[in-house]
Amino acid sequence: MAEVRVFPDADALGAALATELAARHDACAGAFLLGCPGGRSLRSTYAAMAGRGWDRLVVVMMDEYEGAPGDAHYSCTRFAREEIAEPLGVPDERVWLPADGYDERIDAAGGIDVFLLASGASDGHVAFLAPGSPREGRTATVAIAETTRRDNLATFPAFRSLDEVPLRGISVGLGTIAAARSLRLVLHGAGKRESARRLLSLDAFDPQWPASIVHEHDDAEILIDESALP
Fold first, then answer.
1. Which pTM value belongs to this model?
2. Domain range for residue 56?
3. CATH, residue 89
4. Is the separation of the CB atoms in 113 and 182 below 8 Å?
5. What is the chain's Cα-based Rg?
6. What pLDDT tens digit does each residue of the chain (230 aa) get?
7. In total, how many domains does the chain have?
């Protein structure tokens, strides 16, 4: 079962996680591969990472919408560039987006050191992985569940309706995530209380709540702020 750490607010959580990541990066002899989601949950962490040296950081993004223009408001490519790479001084060649052969590329680089995760508020999705996604799944193009698409309406408020949210995307698999050396799942804000309640009620992986993959990993933590506590 994943260890749980509680923080007073999202900024305190982000600062603590950024400090841990910096220490791991600095102790790494080669490239430091960091699995990164887009969206709201890790923003305080990415912000706290700014101003530190990240000369060996490789940003490994979790997913991207099928056919998304690189400058679209919902594009993970845009998010990676504007909210992670540019503030941290990471060049384009060290920002990876999922594509054919993604798992092989990760493995060839030595594997992901830390995978940062968030949990979908309504269905526990991670990346685009809906309830029932295969435990050993690898990077693939998948249908995005309606529950996940509804969560995306809150994540990307420029969507005017569910009809504008893409139906498919390319996503890492649960097997890709579980192969990382460490997992850190972040929950903050009152909107994540139900997700936190579900995760904290489990002590093992439940395929109907994909974020619970953290409970099956030897080095996994759930970082939560007080407003998200159930």
1. 0.94
2. 3-228
3. 3.40.50.1360
4. yes
5. 16
6. 899 999 999 999 999 999 999 999 999 999 999 999 998 899 999 999 999 999 999 999 999 999 888 888 889 999 999 999 999 999 999 999 999 999 999 999 999 999 999 998 889 999 999 999 999 999 999 999 898 888 888 888 889 999 999 999 999 999 999 999 999 999 999 999 999 999 999 999 999 999 999 999 999 999 999 999 99
7. 1
